[in-house]
Protein 1
Amino acid sequence: MTMELHLLEKIRQIKSKNDSDNHHDPYRPGYHLSPPFGLMNDPNGLIYFHGRFHVFYQWNPFETNHGIKFWGHFSSTDLLHWEEHPPALIPSEWYDKNGCYSGSAIEHEGKMYLFYTGNVKNRNGERESYQCLAVSEDGVYFEKKGPILHVPQGYTSHFRDPKVWQQDGRWYMVLGAQSNTFNGRAVLFSSMDLQHWEMLGPLTGSNRKYSEEFGYMWECPDFFHLQGKDILLFCPQGLEPKGLHFHNLYQSGYFAGRWIPGTNHYEHGEFTELDRGFDFYAPQTFVDHRNRRIMIAWMGMGDDHEQCHPTIEKGWIHSLTIPREMKIVGGHLYQHPVQELQKLRIGQPSIVNLDFHNGNHEYYASIHPQSEIIINVNSLINGRLEITIRNNIQLSYDPSNEIFTMARKKFADNRLEKRQCIVNHMRKLQMYLDSSSIEVFINDGQEVFTARFFADQKDDTFHISSEAEASLNLQLYSLQASCPA
Ligand code: FRU
């Protein structure tokens, strides 16, 4: 049996055992993508191709840890209802035998091209990385074409996650890298035929345009033009916490600037975090047929808590975020839940107007595990506003210091941990709650907090309290489940 058939047979066996177990899992998301079993991490190869949205993802089907990686695959016509396909890439060849790592998709001459990193542990246990190509006519079955790019001089074998796009008749590829001096870099290549790639050099990196170090490795870069700005998304590893910033193990954020196409000349501003919560990493964007720039990220973090997720005992771990449309507002990247998500709303919302006057005030509701909650803050004067969700997530805003806080119960010991950021004037909160996740969009996507949480299945409580005068308008929607369970 070939290696590929052997691995597929192993997956088939797990799948049939899984189907026969058929256990109810209260933490399985209703409208977020999660793996049928095993571990999911980065979204890969996001593309709108021949009338369907495709989401591939890093998948270890055999275990709930970061062992070997396949490309799992879902597709959809509406970004809501997803169909599962056979794994698109299987780590079966000498150049990808220890993992088909992250990468991207493009359409060329009616075919889908996947670029990914072949991860190899050689005989001495050392890492090797190959940037590889696979091509498909139908977007489901892929023919591997092998390596198209080797690690250039000056870099360690932490060289991965190709993101490819076309501009002015040329192809470009940006890669996440580590220099021989152990600094993170985003490195740019260009090609006329998708096979031969010329290095244009680092776009930017730690200790290059910075006076300070900015991480020992940059993962999952993405580079695109949006509303007059050239945006570099990337995930630096090795940043120390600084004030309210960088409290997760790894970060995810962007530079906005100006790039001279055809060169690696890129002038940019400061690093801005994309998400201020606990579980957000490795985002990737694509442009759809309506010309929207849409981002999806891994709703996870590979930190010490990872192995404490209670879903592990059900044989799966992690999920992806909802698709978010990116816009630039005042030089800053905003994220909006894609409009399609409104179709998940069941019936009319419950609408509540709250006018809190002097003293302590409270409001209670019961919510569905899949809910969308919109709170318009008409006024909030000199006192903290606090929202508690299913006794696990606490959101608060203090107008006196302008700090927004998300606190959650730690998976390991139930103690509260928090993430915070400054929000100058909080006008609106929009929350997407799923069985075990929350995504909070503040002021129409100016800041976003994303987190997983694991509440008691029966706990449906939603509670608002305000220390001072406040006038709020609430809209509560229950949402339909739309993803494969
Ligand atoms: C980011 C990452 C990528 C790599 C992939 C492996 O989470 O480490 O850099 O390609 O995951 O699964």
Protein 2
Amino acid sequence: MQFYIMTLFPDMVMNGLSTSITGRAMEKELLQIEAVNIRDYAFNKHNSVDDYPYGGGAGMLMQAEPVFQAYSAIKEKAGRTPRVVYMSPQGRTFDQEMAEEFAKEEELVLLCGHYEGIDERVLEEIVTDYVSIGDYVLTGGELPAMVVVDTVSRLVPGVLHNDVSAEFDSFQDSLLEYPQYSRPEIWHGKQVPPVLLSGHHANVEKWRREQSVIRTARNRPDLLEKAELDEKEKELARAILGSEYKDHIL
Ligand code: ADE
């Protein structure tokens, strides 16, 4: 999969994404990640890409033309009109479902704003999706773009070593992941749950599923609305849920 990240801080995104799993996937050519420096498309002699907002107000805005020129270069390279995701706190909140949808694309353009934002007219022309990573305001769209690239990348076949692991993650089933343990068997006086040492595969699976239900009921009861639970699992969840959720969700 090919990602283009339109940014004023290409080093920031490339340094982060060239590390660890996404970095290895780039080396294996499962992912292509290109940071496109919007400043390279500045059209004045000072190389500036920002200006004052009409109507006054605090801060500066990124101008339409450099953003449009950077986009046009990407479009030309891709040979078609790509999906363009503008990272903004005003967007739809990013989640696993959206990541799965993005993972179906052959290429994805992520547009990172800075200063007080970007001239609305270029957004109207090029942006297909407005995406927020949560209800808080960051200094720019780079970290959000990295969050999206990382999340989508691990859904690309071959990026994770173990192809089953993306399937069993938190949220895949609208349930949180069960707790995991590795050696030693006893650490700080704490014993690994005996069922995990039993070698009884079906019992292990049953225990893990129960733990997922318990964790979700405790930590993210809102997720249970989408989870498919059998009667026994619902009973387990009900025993944990406060009354405000019990009637409403299960
Ligand atoms: N830019 C600044 N804050 C953001 C957020 N929460 N999500 C996406 N882009 C942003």
